[in-house]
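Two quick folds needed for the group meeting slides. Do the first one here.
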Amino acid sequence: MCLVREPCPGCGAPHGRPAVSAALLRFSLSRVGDAVLVAFADAPIGVDVEQRPSAGRAVEVAQILQRTERAEL
């Protein structure tokens, strides 16, 4: 197995998402700071890891959110 590029969904050129050469194995990778998340599956998969915002940023953003969004935050 090796890493390859899938065809681009827009133009078909080989600069799409990274993939594993084994046709039945898909993967997704996300990283931020020291955190890395890698997932493998037999179907298209996507993962995302994000850095937790500071308390000050959360207060700043909360001012523009809906009431239900503020409650969740």
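Then this one, please, same format:
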Amino acid sequence: MLHVQSKGQSKGDTKMTLLQKTAVVTGSNSGIGLGVVRELARAGANVVLNSFTDRDEDHALAADIAKEFGVEARYIKADMSKGDECRALIEKAGTCDILVNNAGIQHVEPIESFPVDKWDAIIAINMSSAFHTTAAALPGMRAAGWGRVINIASAHGLTASPFKSAYVAAKHGVVGLTKVTALETAREPITCNAICPGYVSTPLVESQIPDTMEKYGKSREEVLDMLLERQPSKEMATVEQLGGTCVFLCSDAAAQMTGTTLSVDGGWTAL
């Protein structure tokens, strides 16, 4: 199990582990967020799941994770498009040693016809929510003498594609917010980093492949070649790999990593 060091420990003392940490992961009842929750729980962290719904299955999902990994797990509803609910999520969590800002949505359309409501929603959910949750979490991390803020950005936080103006702008903003957060906490045992995935194999992506195959009359392999045109590995990352990257960022090995981006994109941004 990976170890983390907390305030008051010598650098050679690694008795503290994620067993004593609580992680809040936004947008985490499916996809990347759920993968991150599972890997943090596997490493021993108590976890708080979140989305904008409040269904029985959301709470059952948390209960299943608690049972599987032997940790505490809760589900808290909060709409990440609303700043007050973002901040309330952290308050309701009670403890937030690890904050993973993952919530996000997408819309693809040319700038001149891009719906204003879609722009506003993407900026709010993909970028502004990270500002609100971070602002709410930092005082507690400072009081505890340890903290990790991990922002799930994107390869589109480092580069761009046409017709994704709001998403690209928001993810570039998340990378900038990551750097500012790191600078403001640089003299403290708190780090802030951004993970920048390319294409990731999630249930949502997988569910779209058959429709795309039918629409264009192409095989699965041909559709994947289309999707992964900019990803040199020609393979999607997995949610487990992204979760493992988050666990690494919580370890002592990453204690001097702050304000940077980690690309998990199969070489996309190397082009």
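Slide caption for protein two: Residues 116-144 form the longest helix (29 residues).
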